[in-house]
Model the fold of this input.
Amino acid sequence: MKKIRVLHKIFSKPISCLATYSPSIANILDGKIDLILVGDSLGSTLYGMKNTQGVTMEMMKNHGAAVNKEIKKSLKVLDMPYKTYDNKIDAYKNAKILLNHCKADLLKIEISERKLVILKHLADKKINVISHIGVTPQSYKNFNQIKVLGKTNKEKQNLLKLAKESENLGAKAVLLECITADTAKLITENISIPTIGIGASIYCDGQVLVFDDLINLSTNDKKPKFVKNFFNFNKIASNVVRKYNREVKLKKFPGTKFTYN
Ligand code: KIV
Done:
């Protein structure tokens, strides 16, 4: 089996990664998948925001610390929230706050050509950075406007350039979001750090999904094409809640077994 290295850890290829914001879920995931990401998708997934632009340092610190406490084996990744790495001084200051508070192994930042200087600055300061390219959700107020990238030759070449520059400037991995399969293949074949894809085909060195999507926890009916529900928790949980409601109404619960005498 092919192996791949991320920081000091060697994984069998492809790498598996899930995003979660909850310590109890992190406890389930730890050691069963390679990387656990506390993503800023928590803004929309957990806090009901329209996008990720309202996610704050406090939210990432709180969820990051709670989740990371549960992780003993998997690598810990944390997103830097919107507008916290707009210039070198803020980026370094906020990166240190997040790392000290959450003890993450890597930080993920959304990269455009303009942001490469920030990536370099953090990498030069020995901070382990994942470069998130392709669709970068922090740039969108309205997620309905998100479109797959890499369809035109120009987009493909721009993404390849961004991935190569990310590697040259010290990124430890590149996360590819919502790009065409042939663009993902081109990038993966032309850089030596791992590519981790979400909506970026099988031609990546790893895959990431949001845990809530994996088990169909969210109530959002409009799911992107790349989301696969491996389990319908929503349906099972709804049945359980109906059962609880029935037992309460019938005074069957709590009953003697769950009552102190
Ligand atoms: O915020 C997030 O959860 C993410 C991924 C799903 C890649 O960035």
